[in-house]
Amino acid sequence: MQDNEKNPVVKFKVITIFPEFFKPMLEFGIFSRAYKKGLIGFETIDLRDFATDNYRSIDDEPYGGGSGMVFKPVPLGKAIKKAKSEKKTKVVYLTPSGKLFNSDLAKELAKEKDLVFICGRYEGIDQRIVDLYVDYEVSIGDYVISGGEPAAMIVIDAIARQVEGVVKEMDSVVKDSFYDGLLDYPHYTRPETYNGLRVPAVLLSGDHKRIELWREKMKLVETLTKRPDLLERARLTETQKKLLKEIKEQLRKLT
Fold first, then answer.
1. Residue of 3, 43, 56, 96 marked active site
2. Catalytic residue of the set 3, 43, 137, 176
3. Whether residues 108 and 30 fall in one domain
4. Rounded to two decimals, what is the model's pTM?
């Protein structure tokens, strides 16, 4: 899968042993539309193309013994050099031991023009590649999956959403969960009543100020009850701080 010929805002290049894994990204959804419009670039690089033997082998047993296999530094180093269009191109390695990926990191990476992603497998990659080339070690969570490909898809999709024009209405991105460090407020649509449950009256009022205030309050309620840890580092406005104080007082009265 080769990059399109337009001048994208951000170019993604993925080093992988399974290039076809990423094909659906270019065929469906928001990422596909942005790619076809030339807002983002995308290219997969088959690591096996840089193997140095007739068997196209890219891994070997680890020094010191142990189970599993490790990506060899020579093929991977060559692939990275091929992928890096210039010195300031950033290299991202998807690994369980990396920094936990979040909205702030997605926004930071969206400012880069070129990003190269390394999808590891087996026991990982030779540490010398990390020492020499990797700018970001990124994890999508405290669990292990079979390879870096699914993780790369998640990270790339999250970064792409931050690029202006990728999502038709940027306002919806700003109001997404985690964009401002809080969870999103609950959403409702027709019908007004479903299985005996009604849409909150404020959303039917037509009073936009009351609706916005309700949404701010519900973001805080959702975060406080489901992910209170996020409040410890969230940058709250004075209005949000006042609302949070009111919410905590109301919850105390109920207990």
1. 96
2. 176
3. yes
4. 0.86
